[in-house]
């Protein structure tokens, strides 16, 4: 497959059709009858997916891509770069190598990286790509990574694992024991091979559930990209028994907004207030972290309600999330809604509120969009209110 796809004319065809409709192309006659049409179409579709997510791979010549789904599931370069800042030392082994994006960035910080991949065809594809990208300090091993670990006396500075959910995992509850490899079951064995383990999980995993299955957790990183949580990173250190640090990062094109706190800080009691001059909505990484009281204490801002997770102050502060200037606050009732918002255009957010955005729009005939923002929420006195704002950030 590799040699045929890499033919100069086929590569040119792929690049010339990056923006083409795959469904329309599929109906056309294959201009390269010696190569399966489906393989060529897959390269076009997968490479198109990589344009924004994996610009290094997209821009390099003669790169081979796996299925479109594999590209969708792999780490982005932005999150891989973040992960690479967490590791150091001479050696790292990736037990679930996949497309190799994380290892490409680990290799910039670690002298020797071992990429394990159970799928032999994918392992060969990744090895080819690393060669094209001129990376020489990554060794690709095809086969079961657990067997690889058992058959060597070597110890690594880091073990990296991105376990995948088994297809037969039932229900919506996501537990690490339901993944391959089974990290909780193998944890003691992994610690025989390394003193430091970094585990990537999907944001679907509940933090308390993860902690119930793991041990020696030092740091939990919650990584969002453009305010969408993409992954949780669990940093485990052998024999560590101290406090657990939660580190949030929202990566945008212009900056990385971070907020860190110690898990036990959530025992503190925040101050509450009715809406003041400014309103703050934490980014999605902070929302996932559960650090609702810690952020109130750190920035010295007031919560609107215990469960609203919106904050307010009289003085404008720099804040890791959206910032608004409050123009009006009114009770949620028929009279006020008719006078203030009915029939108008407005961006709507609900927090700790009994109605959905869709229902509110339909009920009061409010159009989407525009420059005005309304938060439908509950205040400290448990009253249903609408906070009408202008966006600052």
TrEMBL record:
InterPro entries membership: PG_1098_Fer, SAM-dependent_MTases_sf, Thump-like
SUPFAM superfamilies: S-adenosyl-L-methionine-dependent methyltransferases
Keyword rRNA-binding: no
GO biological process, alphabetically ordered: methylation
Superkingdom of the organism of origin: Bacteria
THUMP-like domain segment(s): 321-390
Keyword terms: Methyltransferase, Transferase
Residues in PG-1098 ferredoxin-like domain copies: 278-320
Gene Ontology molecular function, alphabetical: methyltransferase activity
Protein name: SAM-dependent methyltransferase
